[in-house]
Amino acid sequence: MEQTRETTRRPAGIMVLRTLAMPRDTNPWGDVFGGWLLSQMDIAAGLMAGEVAQGRSATASVDNVVFHSPVAVGQTICIYANLVKVGRSSMEIGLEVWARDLVHLYEPERAFVAEAVFHYVAVDAAGRPRPVPDASSFLVQD
Q1: Residue 140: is its pLDDT beyond 90?
Q2: Residue 21: which CATH number?
Q3: What separation in angstroms does the CA of 140 have from each of 64, 114, 126?
Q4: Residue 27 covered by a domain
């Protein structure tokens, strides 16, 4: 993994989660575990899914997970979400993770560090699929 700073690309979508990578989240080299980052991404996608579904939703699957560069302890990650597609009860949410150091050496520019597509299903109180309300206000217009 080669860490490069993005100079022209900007985050796409709505920032739904921002958090700090702490020492307990890292391996002995000071990089966060991919599983920790993936769990933060699931939280972020779940926040968007719950808002779009106007209630309970569940993770159905995750596709196209790519870790572009490591995240170090002390970096702040910002997760941006795009509602890509809505079915009768399902939602496809694209995520981008961007990181920058705000603790050790302030960095004004963010690095694009990870991306994935999460699939969620709106569910009722019994955990059965239910229809997603009108989500047209969340869909990205080209």
Answers
A1: no
A2: 3.10.129.10
A3: 20, 20, 31
A4: yes
Q: Tokens for 141?
A: 């217009």
What stretches of the chain show up as alpha helix (H) in DSSP? Answer: 34-53
Mean pLDDT of 39-65: 97
Q: What is the mean pLDDT of residues 16-45?
A: 95
On whether residue 49 sits in a domain, the answer given is yes
User: Which tokens in the block code for residue 54?
Assistant: 């106007």
**pTM listed for this prediction:** 0.88
Whether 140 is covered by a domain: the verdict is no
Which residues span the domain enclosing 37? 14-122
Q: Give the sheet arrangement for strand 90-101, strand by strand.
A: 14-20, 75-86, 90-101, 111-122, 57-67
Confidence of residue 51 (pLDDT cuts 50, 70, 90): very high
Supply 97's token pair: 């993770």
Number of domains, the chain? 1
